[in-house]
Automatic annotation (TrEMBL):
One of its GO terms (molecular function) is sequence-specific DNA binding. InterPro entries: AAA+_ATPase, AAA_lid_NorR, Homeodomain-like_sf, HTH_Fis, P-loop_NTPase, Sigma_54_int, Sigma_54_int_dom_CS. It comes from the Bacteria. SUPFAM superfamilies: Homeodomain-like, P-loop containing nucleoside triphosphate hydrolases. Pfam families: AAA_lid_14, HTH_8, Sigma54_activat. It comes from Halalkalibaculum roseum. Keywords: ATP-binding, Nucleotide-binding, Transcription, Transcription regulation. One of its GO terms (biological process) is regulation of DNA-templated transcription. Residues 12-241 form the Sigma-54 factor interaction domain. PROSITE patterns: SIGMA54_INTERACT_3 (PS00688), SIGMA54_INTERACT_4 (PS50045). This is Sigma-54-dependent Fis family transcriptional regulator. The keyword Glycosyltransferase does not apply.
Amino acid sequence: MDREAFQERFGLIGESAALKQVIDKIMQVADTDITILLKGESGVGKDITARAIHSISQRKHNDLVIVNCGAIPEGIIESELFGHEKGSFTGAHEAREGYFEKADAGTIFLDEIGDTPKNVQVKLLRVLESGEYFRVGSSKLRTTDVRVIAATNKDLWNEVKEGNFREDLYYRLDTVKIKLPPLRERQDDIIPIFRKFVTEFSAKYDSVFKGFSDDAKDLLVSYRWPGNVRELKNVAEQLVVLEKSQFIDTEKLQKYLKGRQHTGSADNLPVLSRDVEQNRSQDGASFGAGDQQLIYKALVELRSDIGDLKKMLASFLYSTFSGKNLKALPQNIQDEMQSSEMYDIKSDVSETESESLGVQSFADADISEEEPEEQNEFREFFNGDIIPSIEKTEQFLIEQALNKFDGNRRKASEALGISERTLYRKLDQYGLQ
């Protein structure tokens, strides 16, 4: 069987060099009984790979037993793997064979092997080396003939150094290691895989997918896909079902890309292009055009964030401090409020909207000598000695706007100069209620 036939049989879409290397290695070792360790992030397809290896091995006519070690409670994992005798523990009403016994003459796939408890790792090492094991509650030695495929999304060697994983078991498992590349390292494969999923879901749900724009296509390729192929499949299904018969542009697609859930997360940043890798020397010291493009994109995003924050600050200051003591603000803030750019923001608000938001001109503002507590808090927050981060400033303004309008999000978003949709997203981002 050649590589193309292998890919077609098991639905492994893609022409990237990384995928070809993985398939070549699988075909090289599948027909042996050697232990294999699959390494890769969550969602890269470790289970599919294990099934493919078993299906072209000499054991393909016997069972493939799949065990998720991380999903089995610590108290019963030994019984699940090796079986138990009747009466060996409370609730053991009858004898039961374990997974290694069921997989005899076949293959056992131990997924998330890094989550196995230390006391069970000793017994795993024995069965891997000699095929021998004991059922829980039994002194009778049993044997099994299984081919072991293990998988993990952890750095097992780091787990060894931290004392969470036995070193001898690590060396026993690490006979042949196959590293499954994340989707962001297979950019050429993203569109073909996406089209495959869309075709399948369109047939399943009797839906029509109208395609997507060039910008949406670029976003699909540049997105980091922290959930890898699993996340890509989920997005394809949502688009087919929820955006039925719609042409997908960047705005529609962005709603389903959930990589950035928390402040500071970089999951939705574009990945390095192939040009970046080609422009780097072996010591990583060179600086190529790809690096410049990445930095430029990051600066554009940062400028956009700062611009939105500046507009939000201006709108909020107009609505909050009109009719109050403007001297409560630091001088640099007062000067900035009177700049043409901020004045333009105020001038965009109609007279009716201004009245509803309490916005007045500086000439009409009532300047008193007393400094209200709210303004004093604002002065401390914008103290010239300590410059708060963009995130803290943004969060503060949102909290103040919600307090001012008694939690009315529509009025708060108007005062902040942002849409309600953006406000909802910010509330979720900062964990605000």
